[in-house]
Amino acid sequence: MVKQKGMLINIYNNLVTPLLKKDAGIDAEYLTNLSLSLLAFTSKNRNRPLISRIIKDLNQEFCVFDKRLHQKICGIDFSNPVGLAAGFDKNGDAANIWKDFGFGFAEIGTVTKFSQSGNPKPRLFRLAKEEAALNRMGFNNNGAENLVKNLLKQGVEFQQSRQNICLGINFGKSKITNLSKATEDYLTSLKLLIPYCDYAAINVSSPNTEGLRKLQDPILLKELLREVKNLDNCPPLFVKIAPDLNYKDIEDICQLIIDENIDGIIATNTSLDRLGLEQRKIKQTGLLLAEENGGLSGRPLQLKANQIIRHIHNIDNNIKLIGVGGIDSPESAWERICSGASLIQIYTGWIYKGPQLVPNILNGIIKQINTHKLSNIGEAIGSNLKWIE
Ligand SMILES: Cc1cc2nc3c(=O)[nH]c(=O)nc-3n(C[C@H](O)[C@H](O)[C@H](O)COP(=O)(O)O)c2cc1C
User: Fold this and answer.
1) How far is ligand 1, taken at its centre, from the CA of residue 125, in Å?
2) What span, in angstroms and rounded, lies between the C-alpha atoms of 200 and 370?
3) Which of 128, 109, 379, 103 is closest to 238 using CA atoms?
4) What are the domain boundaries of the chain?
5) pLDDT tens across 129-138, in order?
6) Side-chain half-sphere CA neighbours of 63 within 13 A
7) What's the CA gap between 236 and 228, in Å, rounded?
8) What is the third-level CATH fold of 7-294?
9) Is it the case that residue 42 has pLDDT exceeding 70?
10) Ligand 1 atom at minimal distance to the Cα of residue 201
């Protein structure tokens, strides 16, 4: 095989990007599942000769190594600050491949105690012009027990013995579990998966599971977090919050995070607010965004998600923050870090911009570190330093 630098980027740009330029055409969920199947096959067969050559090429194209990007956060080594956000690899099918796309970490899930099929299709829609998406997937996943099996199949070992793969696991509540029994649901999944995750994300912010966001109420959240913290070998804990909370709600959650000694916050999940796109029509259903159920992600979320990171950082800069929502360029990644995020995650932007987004962001950050004469990324966090061309 002739090795050609940028081959995978070319394939993505020529085959996938044109499909993403239109709302209609190939169904968004079908396209996601197709690419995930390819990645899962590669992840499971990474030691076969041909596949291992492909993985080597991936590494050359997408991985950026620079010790100034390294951080130790909550005792975890992150080789770089860019992670894959939850929801793309819900069953950990490709858990072992994300580092080869240059990610410093990946968040698997959301996983629930019970396997569940999620909401009726279609449930994921492209908003191509705005580089956004609307989804109401509803935690479709194969359940916590299956996730353990899946990770083992790919040789993802207990977290103490593996190298170079930093995995967070995102936990949610099963649809059939009553809200009053939510804690038990989370605990069952966590007990099974604690040995495999570097950190656990407690998801109380998906808009697509009825009542889930009520768990953001400080009284309910306190009860849930206390039980989780009491688990044997509990990993660092991050609470994932919605962008639709008001500042008072956010302040209450921050106080709780401080009082209960929780490690950090992931801000934010998708939005129920239509963020100026209320009158935008979804081609497949003929309904306006204002009339559709589901959470909005991608570029329209960028401003709000960044403001929330800044607000939390101003409340207490000891709360570790993972910034997510609308990051789609080196500039928006830098802004999120300078607003207070120690780590960032991407999902919708990664789809629209393609896998080159990860090295583009990392090279952009390195350039800014040089321009601002910083010694490492840690000095940029919450610094409000501007992007300089
Ligand atoms: C199709 C889809 C599915 C998602 N599923 C989950 C999920 O299961 N759990 C979760 O915590 N967030 C989920 N998210 C939210 C993302 O993790 C992220 O918080 C949000 O999309 C904002 O980031 P983005 O603008 O970079 O996409 C999902 C997002 C999308 C687009």
Assistant:
1) 13
2) 33
3) 109
4) 7-294
5) 999 999 999 9
6) 16
7) 11
8) TIM Barrel (3.20.20)
9) yes
10) 11
